[in-house]
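Re: weekly structure request thread

Next one in the queue (321 aa):
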Amino acid sequence: MSTAGSLDACRASLRERMPVEAAEALVDIGYDRFVDDVCAGLAALRERSVAGCDALSVSPLRRGCRRRLALLEGSPDLCPDDPVFPGREAMCLALAAHDSGLCRGTPRAERVRCRAIVDNDADHCARDVEEGRERCRAEVRRYGPVIAGESQESEAGNASVEFRLEVRTVPPRGRPGDPVIVERDVLDMGVYVRTEGCTHRVTFSNPLGEVPSAGVLAGRSPTATLEITLPAQVALPLHLPLGTAARLEVTVPGVGQTSSIAGATGKATVVRWSTERGGIVEVRIDGDLALVPGRLLVEGVLRTFVRDVDPLSEGCSAQAP
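Done, posted below.
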C-alpha cells in the first residue's frame, strides 16, 4: 500500500473509532488537523522520518514525534530542542542514549520517572509524587522494553557539581575586603556545549544571584557568568586568558552602583573537559577585574557535567589545539 493509501486508511479508521464527544471538542478548540497529525506522526515513525515529524502542524506533537523517533533510533541528536533550557530536552537525551546518568540533567521532579524508564523498572515509580506514579508506570511499560538490556550510567549521575566563587573588592588605596562567597546549585542540571565553527563554547552562570553570608556586599549578591571557547582538540590543563577565549563578567551591587565588569585579566584553567554527554567539565578561575573605583578579585571553581553537546563537523576533528 502506498504512503497516501496508508494515511487515508489511518484517517478513516481513527475517525470511525473516535467518540463523537471527542470529535466535537477538537472542533471547538479549532484543532481540525488532529486526525491528520496523528496519522502523519505514526507514518513518520514507521518511516524513521525526521522531516515527517517536523511537518506536523502543532509544536507539542512535533516534539513528541521527535522524542519517540530519537528513542527508537537510539539517537540523542534527534531529540527536540527544550523550550526552556539550552540544548535538547534532557529527558529525551537520557532515554535515547539509554543513560540513567543523564537523568541528572532533567528537572528534579522528572528524575525518578526518567530513571524508572531507562532502568525498565516500574518499582522506581513508587518514589515519584503520588499524582505522577501512574504516568511513570505507563511510560515504563511503553518505553522501558525498548531500552531494556542496553542501559548504562555515565559520570553525570554521581557527579560532584559546584559553582563557588570568592569575590573581594579592593579599594584604590587599601587592602582587599572580606570575601563574599557566590555559591549556587545552578549547574546541577549540567551545561550545554554549543558548537561554533570548529570550536566549542559553554557558559556557566548564576543569573539569579544569592544572598552572601558576609563581606562588604552583605545583603546583596554579586552574580557571575563565565563563557569559554575551546578548540576541537584540548590538551589539559588548558589555560585560557580572561578577556579572550574566556569571558568573565561579574555584576556587583552595593559598591557605589551596580557595575558589570568584563574584560578581566587572569586566567580560567580547564582541568577537566569532555565533549561526551555525561562527561565532567571543571574550570578554575583566578581573575583580577577593573572596578570603578578599585579592583575586584575573583577566585573559584565551576564543576559540572555535559548535559548536551553539538557535534563538530568532520573536518574539525583533525585540528590541533
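The chain is about 30% helix and 25% strand. The longest helix spans residues 3-17.
Next request, please.
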